């Protein structure tokens, strides 16, 4: 086991990793920007290193500064968390070059799967169903038009290096294609430094279901059930649940085995998530693979009892998986609500500021992964997440009821939040009945706009 790990991230995921390190008896180094000097992760780590000013390119994306911090503090490994450098093959390669273990897959796997178009080709080679569209990045408008015509409109233009809902444009007819391709390429260039895009058939109102996998360096693989992430706006997740209300035991097994097959095809190890779209016929199609821990990993931990972050560290240290597939059992149901400093009535406008009062709920089955405290200032430089609220119950109804009360008890003053909005969603009859898909929240917001509830 490592003696010291550097955490190349911030906020609640940095705190989560610090806690896992403590349980494993590993010392941890936190890096922080000048804007995060009072952040919780910078206060509770064993050692801290300031790596630059607030701008992410000068701090949390500054590879050289992070590598140097690891070398200076004697950290043997780096955990990248999610976002920032977590899926950056160049950073993983740089770690290896400097004799530092990257807590994640190999840079070769990241290269293979990080480019969404290349990942799709890899899945096809593994025999995993993929959404109709281009086999890779399209080189011209003419090529895109031919592929879109064959797949059938509507289609999506998607950034090959994309993520987080960026670089995606829906095209409903041929006359929109060129304009939307240009817009997607420009956004992809701005956010990812890569303007490549590919074409994908748009499945109308499917479910977004992802399979969590874990693999060690000895060639052992497991899948840990699924998470339903269909409640999303602008391709960004709002709440997630595990297991999915639409997935049967038989479908779970088929999707899990397909995910493991895909991971084996890439020689993958460590934590990974393979995302699928599931249509009304319960046919599933590969969408993308995230080569890192997910924001929503706690609901899988609650339902399986398996600590994914500790497992990440153990696998990176060369240890074999502590469980096999037959040991994985789903117990009850879990829901995660992302609590953000934003104003849903003003089109979810971020609400930076100082938290003047804070009460977070508790009780049986309630878990909070967060990094804020009373007096903490949410800056405009990073995402607006306050915390993740997780409810675990004996079944779905029990989890829903616990989440209702937890949201009702959650108090944050000083900034706007989406707590009341989340409570509305949890109380909605269609959510209660599991009758929702990835188009639900868009329709819901359109209705609110018509009623004047959203500006």
Could you characterize what this model shows?
- There is one protein chain.
- The chain has 455 residues and is of the alpha+beta class.
- It has three domains: 4-86, Rossmann fold; 132-201, Dna Ligase, domain 1 (2-Layer Sandwich), CATH 3.30.1490; 207-450, ATP-grasp fold, B domain (D-amino Acid Aminotransferase, Chain A, domain 1), CATH 3.30.470.20.
- Helices cover 35% and strands 26% of the residues.
- The strands form six sheets. Strands 13-12-9-10-11-14-21-19 form an eight-stranded antiparallel sheet, with helices on both faces.
- Helix 7 crosses helix 8 (174-192).
- The longest helix is centred in the middle third of the chain and has 19 residues, at 174-192.
- It is globular and about 55 Å long.
- The N and C termini lie far apart (53 Å).
- The model has no long low-confidence stretch (mean pLDDT 94).
């Amino acid at each position: 086991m490592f003696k010291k790990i550097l955490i190349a991230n911030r906020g609640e995921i940095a705190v989560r990793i610090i806690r896992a390190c403590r349980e494993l008896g590993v010392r941890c180094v936190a890096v922080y920007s000048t804007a995060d000097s009072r952040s919780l992760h910078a206060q509770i780590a064993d050692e801290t290193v300031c790596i630059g000013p607030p701008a992410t390119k000068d701090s949390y994306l500054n590879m050289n500064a992070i590598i140097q911090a690891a070398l200076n503090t004697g950290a043997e490994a780096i955990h990248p968390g999610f976002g920032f450098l977590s899926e950056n093959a160049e950073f993983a390669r740089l770690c290896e070059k400097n004799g530092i273990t990257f807590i994640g897959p190999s840079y070769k796997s990241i290269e293979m799967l990080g480019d969404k178009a290349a990942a799709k080709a890899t899945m096809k080679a593994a025999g995993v169903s993929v959404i109709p569209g281009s086999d890779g990045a399209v080189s011209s408008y003419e090529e895109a038009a031919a592929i879109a015509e064959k797949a059938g409109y509507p289609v999506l233009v998607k950034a090959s290096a994309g993520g987080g809902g960026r670089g995606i444009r829906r095209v409903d007819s041929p006359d929109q294609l060129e304009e939307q391709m240009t817009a997607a390429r420009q956004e992809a260039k701005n956010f990812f430094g890569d303007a490549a895009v590919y074409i994908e058939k748009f499945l109308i109102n499917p479910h977004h279901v992802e399979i969590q996998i874990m693999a060690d360096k000895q060639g052992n693989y497991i899948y840990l059930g699924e998470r339903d992430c269909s409640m999303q706006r602008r391709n960004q997740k709002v709440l997630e649940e595990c297991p999915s209300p639409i997935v049967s035991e038989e479908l779970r097994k088929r999707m899990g085995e397909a995910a493991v097959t895909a991971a084996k095809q890439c020689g993958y190890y460590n934590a990974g998530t393979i995302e699928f779209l599931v249509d009304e016929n319960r046919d599933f199609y590969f969408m993308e693979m995230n080569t890192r821990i997910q924001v929503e990993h706690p609901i899988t931990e609650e339902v399986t009892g398996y600590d994914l972050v500790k497992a990440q560290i153990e696998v990176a240290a060369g240890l074999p998986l502590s469980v096999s597939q037959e040991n994985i059992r789903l117990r009850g149901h879990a829901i995660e609500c992302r609590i953000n400093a934003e104003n849903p009535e003003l089109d979810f406008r971020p609400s930076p500021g100082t938290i003047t009062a804070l009460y977070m709920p508790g009780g049986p089955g309630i878990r909070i992964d967060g990094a804020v405290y009373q007096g903490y200032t949410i800056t405009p430089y990073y995402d607006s997440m306050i915390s993740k609220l997780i409810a675990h119950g004996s079944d779905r109804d029990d989890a829903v009821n616990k989440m209702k009360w937890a949201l009702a008890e959650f108090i944050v003053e000083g900034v706007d939040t989406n707590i009341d909005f989340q409570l509305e969603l949890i109380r909605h009859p269609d959510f209660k009945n599991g009758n929702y898909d990835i188009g639900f929240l868009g329709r819901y917001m359109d209705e609110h706009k018509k009623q004047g509830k959203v500006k």
